[in-house]
Predict the 3D structure of the following.
Amino acid sequence: MLPEHFVPVAADKIYRLFNIGATGLIAAEFEGDVDVMPASWVCALDLIPCKVTAVIDKTHYTRALVEKSGYFAIGLPGAGIVKETLYLGSVSKNDEPDKMAKSGVALLEVPNSTIPMVEGCVAWAVFKVVSEPHNEKSYDLFIGEAVAAWADSRVFEDGHWHFETASDALRTLHYVAGGHFYKIGEPIVVE
Ligand SMILES: Cc1cc2nc3c(=O)[nH]c(=O)nc-3n(C[C@H](O)[C@H](O)[C@H](O)COP(=O)(O)O)c2cc1C
């Protein structure tokens, strides 16, 4: 059962989820094995269908799940799960098989995807890998084409973000380094 505020995002608006440059949580699943890692280096690449780039280092456990399944998901964590986000990026499932349980995050099932989504994110999208072996091998750079997306309607509705009317826990995270994040700030609208 999906949370009350979880609403689908139209295909022509998915790129807007990624235009704000938020830290992502990359999730992947293969034969029931699930892992999630934060990634600062996620970026919109194309409008319709939305494509993104994501840098997923070849040493990460998540990477193998992406390669084996051909899919990944990106959630945009809200500030309410900043500690869990840092945990997911400080511990590898290579070293800690119970990483997901120990992270404390709750996982949500979404329609038509076996990749679980992390509760406490404010947007989620599932991507099919667009195979570019040279980029993947040389730069750890993956391209994904969106197949579905959802957002928390308290902060994203009708194709627009509106963080200013919601709680701080729902503001996206923007990573610097060493556990130092910013929450997204106030809007500036130029008419
Ligand atoms: C906030 C944050 C952002 C990160 N961004 C990236 C990234 O863009 N690409 C990447 O390969 N690793 C990134 N990392 C590192 C991985 O998330 C981290 O090594 C993680 O533990 C890998 O987990 P896994 O081996 O279970 O997949 C980041 C870590 C943090 C804390």
